[in-house]
Design brief:
Elements: H1 2-33, E1 35-43, E2 54-59, E3 65-66, H2 71-83, E4 88-91, E5 104-105, H3 108-115, E6 124-126, H4 130-134, H5 147-156, E7 159-160, E8 164-170, E9 173-179, E10 186-189, E11 192-194, H6 199-203, E12 212-215, E13 229-234, E14 261-265, E15 268-272, E16 290-296, E17 306-309
Parallel strand pairs: 1-16, 2-4, 4-6, 6-7, 9-12, 12-13, 13-15
Antiparallel strand pairs: 1-17, 2-16, 3-5, 8-9, 10-11, 14-15
């Protein structure tokens, strides 16, 4: 009996060890380095014309670095995004790596060449993120006020919006696309930042009653966004990177209560993407990298998320 108990005990220990290794491989290798989800949303704000159908593809938080988010992987994600056939593509900042657990940097000219394959009828637009301001390609590298990121975006044909508003036309109707400067440009103290964002100045550039879509890296601005804005799109949180079963995200509810997904608050719509890369550590668990698509104006043709592997 003791021998049987010992055998069962050893099998249990072995199974637990293998299970732990499997979870570790998923969290530190498979999800952050190979998985990619497509997450579609159907959004019908009251102040968006029902006759104007618009499909937006959202890429956020690339955090380019080897081996987790190589230039080749960025390119494959861009090609996957093109295959969604969006009318408009937006990229929501944090192009530089978010941690130092890397084998090599991926410099802006490298990921910029990958982004150059992005194509959409209404164009490709971007905002900057905090890591683009704080440092260079890696957190250990000196920054240059995001100038290298700006140059890479220009070379890639991606239009950067920094407190800018642009009027676009689709299906014989107009709408505004607004992009804010980053809200965490300078660290003033623990949890205290000074941003380059100017919400009121950006809104002041809107000259008619056409609907508005707002791009911002961090979702912290959302409580200040007026009802005039039909949809706010953000990244930054990575969806917490970890979503534990029955517990949810133990890390993402710090400065803002909504870390992931679609929020409707006082008839204002916000979508926060889980993004692609990682910060602090290369870990994701039950929150794989994703490309988001948003359909405004009529129901999605897709019935649910699509999945792919990206090398």
């Amino acid at each position: 009996m003791k021998l049987i108990d010992r055998r069962m005990f050893m099998k249990g220990v072995g199974g637990l060890s293998l299970g732990t290794l499997g979870l570790g491989a998923d969290a530190f290798v498979i999800e952050p380095g190979f998985m990619l989800d497509h997450t579609p949303y159907q959004v019908t704000p009251n102040n968006w014309p029902s006759s104007l159908s618009l499909k937006i593809a959202v890429i956020a938080d690339i955090h380019a670095c080897e081996p987790w988010m190589s230039a080749a992987r960025v390119r494959s994600i861009c090609e996957f995004t093109n295959a969604l056939e969006p009318d408009l593509i937006v990229v929501l900042g944090d192009f530089n790596a978010g941690h130092s657990f890397v084998t090599a940097p991926v410099f802006p000219d490298q990921w910029g060449e990958s982004l150059a394959v992005l194509k959409a009828p209404l164009g490709v637009f971007a905002v900057l993120g905090n890591h683009d301001w704080w440092h260079g390609a890696l957190p250990t590298m000196r920054g240059n006020g995001a100038e290298s990121v700006r140059r890479a975006l220009r070379s890639a044909g991606v239009q950067l919006l920094e407190n800018d508003a642009i009027r676009l036309r689709h299906q014989n109707q107009s709408f505004w696309l607004l992009g804010l400067g980053d809200q965490m440009v300078h660290r003033l103290g623990r949890g205290v930042y000074e941003g380059s964002d100017d919400l009121s100045g950006t809104l002041a550039q809107v000259t008619d009653k056409a609907p508005i879509i707002l791009l911002a890296h961090e979702p912290f601005i959302f409580p200040r966004v007026p009802h005039r804005v039909s949809l706010t799109l953000c990244g930054h949180t990575h969806g917490g990177q970890v979503a534990l079963p029955f517990i949810g995200n133990p890390f993402g509810r710090t400065r803002f209560h909504h870390a992931y997904g679609h929020l409707i608050e006082d008839d204002r719509h916000l979508i926060v993407s889980a993004g692609l890369g990682t910060s602090y550590a290369p870990v994701r668990f039950c929150r794989p990298p994703e490309v988001v698509s948003v359909m405004l104006g009529h129901p999605l043709l897709q019935s649910g998320p699509a999945h792919m592997s990206a090398s």
